[in-house]
Amino acid sequence: MDIKQDLSSFSNSWYDPGAGIIKRFFWYCTNECWFRSGFPINGFKVFLLRLFGAKVGHGVIIKPHVNIKYPWKLSVGDHVWIGEEAWIDNLADVAIEDHVCISQGAMLLCGNHDYKKSTFDLMPGKITLRISSWVGAKSVVCPNVTVGKNAVLAVGSVASSDLEEGWIYRGNPAVKVKERG
What is the pLDDT along the chain (181 residues), one digit of tens a residue? Predict the structure, then answer.
């Protein structure tokens, strides 16, 4: 039988999550209790993110049921909205600039696997959301992608490459549709 990936040979031992096992454990418990739950008090969630090493600006809104992998790899600017059930899977740094909207169910996916290698190696990559960009509901931003200033990723779309400043993108893969105006 010809198999393309041998998961028995997968090793993540080289990957550094940026914090020790104890900090990761306490973050996991905190994330489950206060973020992934329906806990509605926003200011407390911002406090917890900062406590665990995230850089978080002023006027940030974090809705219920948000999932954040590693807050110490997260930078959030001022007046950012993070919608219900958004998932920030930040195996690498995520930089969210001012006035960014991440709509409900959106996913910032900082990791992928190398399908060319049978060992299925992890490939983490940074994500940057520039000022006043908007990641639509149920859309995905892939590793090593920058969403440009004032760019929009429409509902259910997938950004697998950089999105230029001031344009609306739609589809899978996302393509330029029109200027935001």
Answer: 678 888 998 998 999 999 999 999 999 999 999 999 988 899 999 999 999 999 999 999 999 999 999 999 999 999 999 999 999 999 999 999 999 999 999 999 999 999 998 889 999 999 999 999 999 999 999 999 999 999 999 999 999 999 999 999 999 999 999 999 8
Distances (CA, A) of 69 to 22, 94, 171, 179: 15, 11, 26, 33
The first and second tokens of residue 174, run together, are: 């996302």
Residue 110 and residue 127 in contact, taking contact as beta carbons nearer than 8 Å: yes
Strand-by-strand arrangement of the 140-141 sheet = 67-68, 87-89, 107-109, 140-141, 158-159
Where along the chain do its domains lie? Answer: 19-179
Mention the CATH class of domain 19-179: mainly beta
Name which of 105, 72, 77 is nearest 91 in CA terms.
72
